[in-house]
Structures are given as C-alpha cells and as structure tokens.
Amino acid sequence: MTTVITDAAGAPPAAPAPPASHQRRRRRDLAPLVLLSPAGLVLALVTLAPIGFLVFTSFTDYNQRSLFTGAYRSVGLDQYTDLLSSGAVWASLVRTVLFTAAMVAGSVLIGMGVSHLLTRLGRRWRYTVTVVLIVAWAMPNVASSLVWNWLFQPGYGVVNWGLDQLKIFGDTTNIDWTQDPTRAYAVIWLLIVWQAVPFIALTLNAAETQVPREYLEAARMDGATELTVYRIITLNHLRPTLLLVTILSVIWDYNVFNQIWLISRGGPGDATSTLGVYTYKTAFVGFQIGHGAAISVVTTLLLLGLTALYIRRLLKSGEDL
Amino acid sequence: MKHKVANTIAAIFCLVWAFPVYWMVNTAFKPRPEVMTPTPHFVPEHPTFDNFLNAVRQEHFLTNLRNSVIVVVLTVMVSIVLGIFAAAALSRFRFRGRRLLMVVILAVQMLPGTALLIPMFVMFNQLDLLGTYAALVLAYVATVLPFSIWVMRGFFVTIPAEIEEAARMDGASTWRVLTSVLFPLVAPGVISTGIFAFIAAWNDYLFAYTFMQDQSHYTLPVWLASFTNPHTGTDFGGQMAASVLFSVPVVVFFLIIQRNLVAGMSAGAVKG
C-alpha cells in the first residue's frame, strides 16, 4: 500500500509553524536534530543504504551463484548497455506506459463521474455509495486479486456465466482469461480501476463540494446547460485536485505489482510483464540480480521525474512543506 | 425526475462495485457443491461455516497468523515512536534542510517495490537475515516510517502556536512541551497513523513472499495466495473464507479512520 498526503481535498489551511521564540532560538540548533536523528538514522539504514547498494549492484554481474558464494565481478556499464539493447526491456517499458495510461484514464474518468454523481444524490444514496466506495478501497489487494481470479475462473466464474447469458459472445463458460494477452489485460484493468476509483472519486468530491454555489447558480440562470456548467465552472475548480490525483494515479499504476503477479504472473509469456513484474522475474526467477538492479535503477529514475512533478504541483496547491 | 436518474445510476454503480465483495462473502458461506457449479447460486442455499473452519485448520494458518501479528506490531511500534519525534521536529521547528527532508520523505514513498526489494534481498542474504522477522520489520519500517512521519506531521501542524507558546511562557522545557502539551494533542493522529501502518504491513505480499522462503515463515497474505495448489486444485470456498478473515480487520480499521480520510482532516489518502 502506498500512502500519500495531499492537501488538495480542501483541507483547512495549515497553521504556520510557530515563530521561533527567544528561548527556542537558543535551542533550535539542537532540539530538532535530537528529535530527528533516531528516525533519520533508521531511514538512512533501511532506505538510502539499500538504494545506494542497488546502484552498486547494477554495476556488477551479481547472480544466483553470488548469493551462495558472495563472489561477483564489477562489469562497469555492461548491465545498462545490455538493457538498452534488450528488446524485452523496451517491450516491457512500452507495455508499462500504455497500460498505465489505460488504467489512469479509466480510473480518473470514472472517478470524476462518481464524484459528480455524489453531488446529485440525496443523503441516503450518498451515504450508500460512499460506504461501497470505502469498502472497495479498503480491500487488501491480495484478497481482491484472489476474488478476481475466482470471478473470472474458467468453468465456474460468475463473470463467464454472466457473459454466456448475454448470448453475444458465444459460449464463454470456459474462457481462460489469463491465457490471452488482451483478456488478461482486461481482467487486471478492471481490478485496478475498481480499486482506484474510490480514492479518486472521494478526493474529487471533497473538492467539488467546495465549488461556490453562487457560481453554479449564476451560470444556470444564464441558461447554461448542466454540461456547460460542469465543463466551465466545476472542472475549472477541480483542475488542481484533478492534476494531483492524476499524477498520483500514474505513479501508483506504474508501480502495480501484486495484482498482475497474482492474476497472470506477467503471462501469457511476457505479455503482461510490466516493468515491475519484468524486473521481479529477472531478479528473483532468473536470479540475474545485477541485471534486475539495472532495470530497477532505470525504473526508479523514470519515476523520480513523475515524483518531482507531483511535489511541484503539491507546493503550488499550497502545501507547506 | 433528475433525482430519479441520479438514483438509478447510483444503484447500478453500487451493485457493480459491491459485487466482487459480495461474491467473496457469498462464496465463503457456500458448501463445495454449490461453489463448483457452472450455474452460480446468488444466495447460498445451505449456508455453512465449513469453509472458515477449513481455512483456519490449514497447517500453517496459526503460525503464519502469529508471524503476521509479530511483524505488524513491531513495525507499528517502531514507526510510531520514531515517527512522532521526527514529525514534531519537522512541524514545530524551522531549520535548514527541513524542506529537503520533507521532499526526500515524500519521494521515498514513491519508490517502486523492486528498488528496495532487490538490494535488501542481497544484503539480508549476506547478513543471514532472510527468513527472520528482522528482515520483514526492516523492510516494512522502510515503507511505513516515511508516511507515518508525513501523516503525523499533518496533525502537529494543526496545533495552534499559541498553545505551545503559553507552555513555554510558563517555563516548560522543549521536552516538557512535547510530552505534556503536543503529544497528547496529536493522540488521534497517532491512532490514525498506527492504523495506516498496520494496514500497510498487514497487506504486504511482495516482501514476505520474497524474503521468508519457507511455509512456516510466511505471513498471512502469502498464506492466502498459496491456497492455489497446482496438485489438488483450488479450494475456492476455503480461499474466499480465508480472504474474508484476512480482509475483515483491514476493512473495519479503514472504516474507523475513513472520517479522517474523507473529511480531509489531514487529507490523508491511502491506496491499496
């Protein structure tokens, strides 16, 4: 699970940190340092050191044998030149980008729809929809991946049965969803979107309820259609939140691992091996750890670009770091 | 008229979105013949607890449950204790490098799983830590501590400066201000953060699956996924019952803190 805080949901503006009092001024060099150092040391040990080691490993030929003997050689930039010339890595990158785009587009659009729907509902329905959203959001992704496997189980899956009843697609009872790339993507896409919509819908809705009523009413008085009101006024107000939520979704969906692994294991073949899955297979199935490390470094760098974008937007939207 | 359209859409949405969860619960209460039928039963005809009994009677359930509890409790305690001091420092003091630290903490949360998984695996292998609780706790602290700091900082920031200043006027030391004034005020934040940390560690599959390497060392998510057995076929009733058991604590805790999430008190957001 990834957790992130945004101030986009219309939170009350944070109180500024207290101005340094006289007494504090004398102590200020020491107190924060003392308070920070335990967490700082632990974080350096468990995050910065591994990242450093990851980069180091990516310049070696660390493999299965090294795990037992501890012996490895430095290979300079070989892992990187290898991955640049590897068709499988490029294919995986393209797959990741396209699939991420599809998941983000799906979840953001549906999320916008549900957010708007919530503003149109009476108390009771709004409460019901919110509870449904929160339960879907709260489901651990390992459990929901297994539920998905069961929903789409050949022979016994309720989805297979349902599609069969429609009589549009022919006999669908025995479709093995994970044996076909397109179908495997469809199943994973549905799961990711199902889990992503609640966060997006509720965050956007929190912002949408902050849109000044007078604006909406004034526009309606002028004879604007509901669609125009939404497009011109609501969307305009939602833009900062929408942008933050979209960037976050891109980061999260780019990192998706469990759901793909538990549904298709990256298969059939490598058809659903996004960068995360491909890296995992390289490092922990093929035990080419050096090569896996190099892919992971590249993946991380690409992601850092997105994170930088996110942090800039966060600062612009008024978050005080 | 307009209300009716919206209500209809809401009803359809709820049906679709709740269905997977309903189907999990529904399957969990069905005897095997009702589970394995080409024509699904939408309500169990002969509801039974057998699937739940079968699930908890699995060979490794109790050991793996114990592993999960130990690892999760240690992770939560370490993250809260270290996090609360760091959050205090990052919210109640101004000092050089504070913004940089905040940015690093935020960026660490966005790392792809394999970026920590690969180096930690190699390091723990060399230190002979694979298969131990320590390996998992260290990995979870790496993922949980940054957001614990971030979430708790959000609660510290909302405390008005005057309260702190009043205590200082009365001659309270920095330590006193922290322990007697600030910490009690962020207690709700500590609970929320603890729940976040619990959920993150409880749900992890990737680290446990990669580091623990032995059935008796696994945690519950790996246990859950291992219901799929290529030899005997999957016991879907048992698997769904196990999924219910595994998910209930998370969903309950999530509902407790959802007020904070939705009202945007600290505008915290969690994604599964």
From TrEMBL, chain A:
A GO cellular component annotation in the UniProt record: plasma membrane
InterPro entries: ABC_transporter_permease, MetI-like, MetI-like_sf
Occurrences of domain ABC transmembrane type-1 (ranges): 93-310
Pfam families (alphabetical): BPD_transp_1
Record localization: Cell membrane
Main location: membrane
Annotated region (Disordered), positions in chain: 1-25
GO BP annotation list: transmembrane transport
UniProt keyword Chloroplast, yes or no: no
Database matches in CDD domains: TM_PBP2
Bilayer-crossing regions: 33-56, 93-115, 127-151, 184-204, 241-263, 283-311
Record PANTHER family: ABC TRANSPORTER PERMEASE PROTEIN, INNER MEMBRANE ABC TRANSPORTER PERMEASE PROTEIN YCJO
Name of this chain's protein: N,N'-diacetylchitobiose transport system permease protein
Organism of origin: Paractinoplanes atraurantiacus
UniProtKB/TrEMBL annotation, chain B:
Pfam family, one: BPD_transp_1
Main location per the UniProt record: membrane
Alphabetical list of InterPro entries matching this protein: BP-dep_ABC_trans_perm, MetI-like, MetI-like_sf
Compartmental location: Cell membrane
Keywords from the UniProt entry: Cell membrane, Membrane, Transmembrane, Transmembrane helix, Transport
Transmembrane parts of this sequence: 5-25, 69-88, 100-124, 130-156, 177-202, 236-257
Protein origin, superkingdom: Bacteria
GO biological process, one term: transmembrane transport
Record-level GO cellular component terms: plasma membrane
UniProt membrane topology term: Multi-pass membrane protein
Ranges of residues in domain ABC transmembrane type-1: 65-257
Similarity remark: Belongs to the binding-protein-dependent transport system permease family.
This protein's name: N,N'-diacetylchitobiose transport system permease protein
Upper classification of the organism: Bacteria, Bacillati, Actinomycetota, Actinomycetes, Micromonosporales
